[in-house]
Amino acid sequence: MKTIPDREITRRVRSLCELLKAKDVNFALIFQNTDRFYFTGTLQDGVLLVPTDGRSPVLFIKRTLERALEESPLENIIGFTDIREVYEYIWDQELDPATVGLEMDIIPAKFYLNLLRSFPQTRFVDISKEIRSIRAIKSEFEIDIMREGGRRLDNVLEKLLKELKPGRTEYDVYRKLTDLFYEQEALLHIRTRSFSMESLPIHILSGQNAAKHSAMDSPSGGGDGISIAFPAGPGFRKLQMGETVLIDVAFNYAGYNIDCARVFAFGKIDTIYERAHRVSDRCHELFLKKARMGSYIPDVYNEIVEYVSKEGLSDVFMGGVKFIGHGVGLELDEFPIITENFKEYIQKGMVIAFEPKFIFDHGSAGYENTYYIVNEQAETLSHFEQSIHFL
After folding, report:
1. β-bridge mates for residue 373, sequence order
2. Domain total in the chain
3. What is the extent of the structural domain holding 272?
């Protein structure tokens, strides 16, 4: 397995230290798997200590130390069995605990209460926004991985065309897609950050199942599913003539996700779907123009929502969710979020899954692409034809 280069980890840690210093943070403790992997290059269970006084970061590993030593380029990697050993290290090294940074959007309450007891005089501050902002800007190392992921996903979708036939169930198609994912070395595991949000890598929504929403905050993360224990995703409904099929996939290659959705149809469909798909296409054009300009995200969101309203499609836009795009990378729900309430600007280096979709009672339209924002351009990372595929 390929490891993350030393220079990449060094750059990431340096960026974090700069933001921590700006918040007067003495050191940070990073617990979350994806964040820890991003800054260390290993997913082995542990805690990352990042001082801001010039000392090197220290990675404490509970399980498994041998693999962490092989995978991470960090110099200071220490095994431990109890979290108190980490706290003792802090005291022994006389690190100043006046202000400590934590990922407060995800840290378990048990850990936080333990920290309060162990460091009663410490001011704990949330550094989750800083971490997510660093991760939102992708390096060339990351983009190269995502480009390859997009290329492999294109191969999957091309081969899928032969498998889509009326009479087959959504689950039949899911099984075939799973095989195709394996052929292209995809990881069938999707990481998300939002509390209690779980996601499948593949959603297949045929006909009326497009309007069957789930607990997931997504316009196309619903569907029948095959069990009440996970009531979403492909079910046993058969694909039918005269209906649309929305296939929404998160293709995880080497840890990085490419989010993509396409619409397929059998025979003649209602013209409203084709019109809505053209509106989706125009939404993509508007977004790309604004993204290349580094626009203010609430303005981008509002302009697209206003355009959809003028087209008379507001009632079916986005299945009721309040965003039309989101960052992707190691997690499916990264920064930025293309919504009215995300008060930031689109920046060079961001990777954004833009998904203007229209969910009707008996079908769907619209598509999703993953875009890499570069200077005055926006590179599409998935190139499979985006118009409705009539089969």
Report:
1. 378
2. 2
3. 137-390
Q: Do both 253 and 207 map to the same domain?
A: yes
For residues 276 and 313, is the Cβ–Cβ distance under 8 A? yes
Rounded distance, CA 250 to CA 187, Å?
10
Question: In this structure, what CATH number is given to the domain that contains residue 128?
Answer: 3.40.350.10
Indicate whether 272 belongs to any domain: yes
Q: Which residues contact 138 (CB under 8 A, 6 or more apart)?
A: 146, 329, 349, 350, 351, 372
Model confidence pLDDT, tens digit, residues 265-313: 999 999 999 999 999 999 999 999 999 999 999 999 999 999 999 999 9
- 83 and 231 housed in the same domain: no
CATH code of 358's domain: 3.90.230.10
pTM above 0.90, yes or no: yes
Q: Is the distance from CB of 192 to CB of 334 less than 8 angstroms? A: no
Residue with tokens 């990352």: 48
What does the block give as tokens for 39? Answer: 């800054």
Task: Indicate if 324 and 218 belong to the same structural domain.
Answer: yes
Alpha carbon separation from 173 to 164, 177, 230, 274 (Å, rounded)? 7, 6, 18, 23
Strands (DSSP E) contained in the chain are 27-30, 45-51, 58-63, 77-79, 99-102, 123-126, 202-206, 244-253, 256-265, 325-327, 334-337, 351-354, 357-360, 363-366, 369-374, 377-380, 389-390
Specify the pairing of strand 45-51 against strand 244-253.
unpaired
Cis previous bond, 10, omega within 30: no
What rounded mean pLDDT belongs to the chain? Answer: 96
Contact 114, 82 (CB under 8 A): no
Average pLDDT for residues 189-211, to the nearest whole number? Answer: 94
Q: What is the pLDDT of residues 117-138, one digit of tens each?
A: 999 999 999 999 999 999 999 9
Task: Tell me, yes or no, whether 64 and 145 share the same domain.
Answer: no
